[in-house]
């Protein structure tokens, strides 16, 4: 890969940023880091970055109980949201992307806000990674600096058709109509569509009322408890490595565990004991209702209602949409 140190680089996550800087000797001022996991939590349609930041900070405070005052201000020097205006002044922008759902949604988010701020997309380039020996590379964060040097492509200009499809993805994902994303998936084919498809699996199953990650977390609590950290760790291990492109962080899964064990729930699916602000201090066990829901003999939404976000869709008892396998019904 040729030297790209004269450009402004954007990448999702601190781990990926650290590897890229080490791999190519980039100084911190040349790398902006997206620390907002846009692939989960509320993502309503807006073109105002200040409004977006307020919504996302409120959400992230909730899933990081040890940091109730969470703010992107902690990273004023290199956070992408705080320094987005620097992209307009940069002669060239290089976005580093894996094939995973999170990175592809980050690319869609980036295109949306570049257009919203009237940034010239002609200077946007993408760096991708050659497929690993056993599966797709979901993000730069899973690679060492040496692997990044070996697998990274050269910067490729973002084609107009590619930018248009990414913009459509963001429009569909952030829509408050769940059919918008389903329509995109039904009318498109290719790697981007494949990366976005797992989002539909987060909708609750019609029989159990569980989304994909909640089901997997309950299964691992049953099979790998009682330590909650171990259950969460096993939930994060890549599954179906040849084709499953979604991934989430331990903060997201810890939040899901706390929600499913809430004493405010009418019928909690798990019990979590210990310091509920510290994942490693907790133990977990399925309740009778959790066992019943996993067996699809009971329905989590019927038991406890629902208050969840999938992109721009706010799921409540009056607006809930279920799925049968990978199709919304």
Task: Please tag this protein with its features.
five-stranded mixed sheet; Topoisomerase II, domain 5; three-stranded mixed sheet; Rossmann fold
Short description:
With 329 residues, the chain is of the alpha/beta class. 39% of the residues lie in helices and 13% in strands.
What does this structure look like?
It is a single chain. The protein is built from 13 helices and twelve strands. The protein folds into two domains: 8-174, Rossmann fold (3-Layer(aba) Sandwich), CATH 3.40.50; 205-305, Topoisomerase II, domain 5 (Alpha-Beta Complex), CATH 3.90.199.10. The protein has 329 residues and is an alpha/beta fold. The mean pLDDT is 94. Helix 1 (14-24) links the parallel strand 1 (8-12) and strand 2. 39% of the residues lie in helices and 13% in strands. The termini are far apart. The strands form four sheets. It has a five-stranded mixed beta sheet with strand order 2-1-4-5-6. A three-stranded mixed beta sheet has the order 3-9-10. Strands 7-8 form a two-stranded antiparallel sheet. It has helices spanning 14-24, 49-63, 86-89, 101-116, 145-151, 160-174, 178-187, 191-196, 212-224, 228-236, 250-260, 288-294, 300-304, and strands at 8-12, 31-34, 41-42, 93-96, 124-127, 156-157, 270-274, 282-286, 308-311, 313-315, 323-324, 327-328.
